[in-house]
Design a protein that fits this description.
By secondary structure, this protein is mainly β. It contains four helices and 14 strands. The chain starts with 12 loop residues before the first helix and ends with a strand.
Amino acid sequence: QASSASGEETTCDFAKLDIRVGELVEVWNHPESTKLYCEKISCGDDEPREVCSGLRDFFTLEQMTNKRVLVCCNLKPAKMANFVSNGMVLCAKSADGKTVEFIDPPSDAPLGTRILPQNFSGGTEPYTANQVKKKKVLEAVMAAGMATDADFVATWSGEKLVAGKGGEVCRASSLANAHIS
């Protein structure tokens, strides 16, 4: 069980994930897949993390480069077409699957700022990657519903997602009531 500095156990599934504000500092076409991009994303750590995303059908390299995004940082590394991905970029997707939009963090949120529900109880210490996988935390978060609302605001289980405690909301640019993954 993860617990915060206050010793409070992290009971909110969303808070068990380490979702942070990141910036795509380098993006290139995956050499072995026509659907994947390889990215270096600065998430407030010492070094940018390498992430692989299936976004080539939806964004150009130019649209990706220097884009601020939300990144789930405590997933176990996953090999995607021989590229080890150390995270997941969160996007909203239209019901027909033809439109994908990034979930934009507030413009003034520093890189590395945690994204949390506006209202939840329990601690905020994220789980380790092993705990996330073993306890199926990502699956539980997705099952509880991560989507944009009618105003394009990112929500989880009906709660608005904000940058840091009491921060501004995160949002898609034009997709309402769209699934986020």
